[in-house]
């Protein structure tokens, strides 16, 4: 889920603009500005008409249509568990339509020029419905526009490349990162209770829009929720603490924070994987594990299971790591090619997946799978094992 340096440089200025627009408009509260403004980034999380819950999602078979259709996935990089899981979900969803022909998977290998060449090659092979993870950000936008103008239904997902749906590509599909910040913070405030406490937010790479917009949701909830009045966020205003979504870097960062602050009662993160490094830092420092939020990950759930008996304050909540949203992206692309209206939301409010304070949502630890496995996917355990083999 980390961003390439090229994408970061291309999007840091857009991220700042997105934050300003989100804050001024009350975050995810109402209709946004036209999608073209500032590359369309802030409008994605600010347009109620495009946003919905998982209950509004529909099966692939509603959109298969009857015409043969060639589909493909162009990934900015394929070298981590998130991308491997998403690829398996994409291929599983495509298998539900007998009229779909799946073209070869394209791995951009964190190289913007290769990602551009991959899209062009797929267009030359006759792709008609193309799902793209645009790690290269706006650098990839002219190529997406070129494919779209050539008649390909192009749907970028998770990473917003800027541009305008209907002009530069078919539509953009992703998740409401502001809502994630609200969800984590609301849980944190409820878990801390009236006594409150000190909380830190650990983000990813410097300037990435995911962590920045999550920060908007965190600060919004802290300001508006009376139950958060005794909770103190140790971050500088508007600034996630960068960890590069890397376990070793998070361990180093958290070690520094533990030296600086004698009391940390809660950690909000947007990475279950990187959290494993932060947990190690607490344990090595002999400090009690605090309340902790993340995106779901098998290793994170197992870390809770391994430590919960001796660490009673170590309660956790996760939201889904949302690899299944790639299925929605495929449905949007195929439906557009078939001329079938797809009224599913483009931006999904991600639900809580695990919650140690709710017995109906106990963390899921599967020791037969790698620590990097994402159990909130729609894949079976057998499919997950094949994805990581």
TrEMBL record:
Q: Report the main location listed first in the record.
A: other
Tell me the Pfam families matching this sequence.
Answer: Peripla_BP_4
Q: Does the keyword Cell cycle apply?
A: no
Query: Where would you find the membrane-spanning parts of this chain?
Result: none
User: Key word tRNA-binding present in the record?
Assistant: no
Top-level taxon: Bacteria
Family listed: Belongs to the bacterial solute-binding protein 2 family.
| Name the record gives this protein | Substrate-binding domain-containing protein
Name the source organism: Streptosporangium amethystogenes subsp. fukuiense
The lineage is: Bacteria, Bacillati, Actinomycetota, Actinomycetes, Streptosporangiales
